[in-house]
């Protein structure tokens, strides 16, 4: 079975309120050792036959695990992300400390410039732009807390640790060191969003935070800096409050260690419910938005499809088709109903 068949099992295109198409006897949609089973999507397999049955199919185990984790989560917590970040995100891997990051999507171009750290008796040193899943989780926390409290000032430290714990991120050792590093990168970098809307365009130059308080931590006998509090820049906060995208914490928790899957999920959460008809997106455009580190589309496509499966595993209402030209996005219900998002 190729990745295209797996995606059809995971998310066959359906009408928003209609049932998925029935599986045909003898196809790879059947659970091992079962015949004539009307199984449909991975979510239906899990609900009707259980996790063991889903694992017995040829669906990627990581997809089954993500979908099962998502479906078992009853918390219902809502998180928020600025719409600009849902269209153009941070790098997946570490860049040179002095390297500028640039990425483009259909309507947004993002430039992230690394900041510098003062050094005694030496030139300031580059800190590097934030990257990877940890940076995304910190950014999500900052934005959610700002929307929740309607305040630019966000407490980090213990509160951030507690939230990472909720997401299943172990607190200590290399994990907390990575969090400290990404928090400092976020606090020192500067970004530019160039937004295109029809014949109109706008430019937003901003820091993510205006001010931050660093505290010394001596855990494990090693002293290192960690952000205790942060104050979002006024421009960034204003844009966030005008254009927040609600997403499910359960979805983030289930794919928390995969930066590309997180980006795809946030993009779909922002994009699909605004559509009034089918919208094609080419492989070239997808690579420009999600795979700038790849030189060739044929290298990018398999990795993207793997991560698309993970994103769809935690967004059951998403309706996405694929063909040889790219994706076809279909109008879909948002992951968080509008009435719920408005009261959180």
Low-pLDDT stretches: 1-6, 12-39
Strand order of the largest sheet: 2-3-7-8
H/E element order: HHHHEHEEEEHEHHEEEEHEHHEHHEEH
Rg over CA atoms, rounded to whole Å, is: 21 Å
Q: Between the first and last Cα atoms, what is the distance in angstroms?
A: 42 Å
Oligomer state equals single chain
- Binned strand content: 15-25%
Structural class determined from secondary elements: alpha+beta
- What gross morphology would you assign? globular
Total count of helical runs of at least 4 residues: 14
Portion of residues within helices: 40-55%
Could you tell me the mean pLDDT? Answer: 82
Topology:
Elements: H1 3-10, H2 42-49, H3 51-55, H4 61-72, E1 78-82, H5 83-87, E2 101-104, E3 108-113, E4 116-117, E5 125-126, H6 132-149, E6 153-155, H7 158-166, H8 173-188, E7 190-197, E8 200-207, E9 209-217, E10 224-232, H9 234-242, E11 244-248, H10 249-254, H11 259-271, E12 279-282, H12 283-290, H13 297-313, E13 320-323, E14 326-329, H14 338-341
Antiparallel strand pairs: 1-11, 2-3, 3-7, 4-5, 6-10, 7-8, 9-10, 12-14, 13-14
Helix pairs in contact: 1-13, 6-8, 11-13, 12-13
């Amino acid at each position: 079975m190729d990745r295209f068949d797996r995606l059809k099992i995971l998310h066959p295109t359906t009408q928003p309120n209609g049932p998925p198409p029935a599986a045909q006897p003898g196809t790879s949609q059947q659970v091992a050792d079962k015949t004539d089973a009307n199984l449909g999507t991975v979510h239906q397999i899990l609900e009707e036959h259980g996790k063991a049955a889903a694992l017995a199919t040829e669906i990627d185990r990581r997809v089954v695990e993500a979908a099962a984790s998502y479906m078992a989560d009853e918390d219902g917590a809502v998180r928020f992300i600025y719409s600009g970040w849902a269209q153009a995100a941070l790098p997946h891997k570490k860049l040179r400390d002095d390297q500028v990051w640039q990425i483009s999507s259909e309507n947004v171009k993002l430039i992230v410039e690394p900041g510098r750290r003062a050094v005694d008796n030496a030139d300031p040193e580059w800190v590097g732009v934030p990257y990877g899943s940890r940076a995304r989780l910190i950014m999500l926390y900052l934005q959610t807390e700002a929307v929740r409290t309607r305040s630019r000032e966000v407490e980090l430290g213990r509160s951030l640790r507690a939230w990472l714990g909720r997401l299943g991120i172990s607190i200590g050792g290399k994990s907390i060191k990575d969090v400290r590093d990404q928090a400092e990168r976020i606090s020192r970098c500067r970004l530019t969003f160039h937004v295109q809307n029809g014949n109109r365009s706008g430019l937003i130059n901003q820091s993510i935070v205006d001010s931050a308080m660093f505290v010394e931590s001596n855990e494990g006998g090693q002293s290192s800096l960690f952000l205790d509090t942060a104050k979002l820049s006024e421009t960034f906060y204003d844009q966030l409050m005008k254009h927040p995208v609600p997403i499910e914490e359960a979805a983030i928790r289930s794919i928390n260690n995969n930066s590309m899957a997180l980006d795809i999920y946030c993009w779909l959460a922002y994009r699909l419910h605004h559509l009034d008809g089918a919208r094609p997106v080419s492989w070239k455009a997808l690579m420009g938005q999600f795979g700038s580190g790849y030189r060739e589309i044929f290298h990018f496509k398999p990795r993207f499809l793997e991560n698309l499966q993970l994103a769809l595993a935690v967004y059951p209402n998403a309706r996405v088709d694929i063909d040889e030209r790219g994706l076809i996005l279909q109008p879909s219900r948002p992951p968080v109903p509008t009435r719920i998002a408005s009261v959180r």
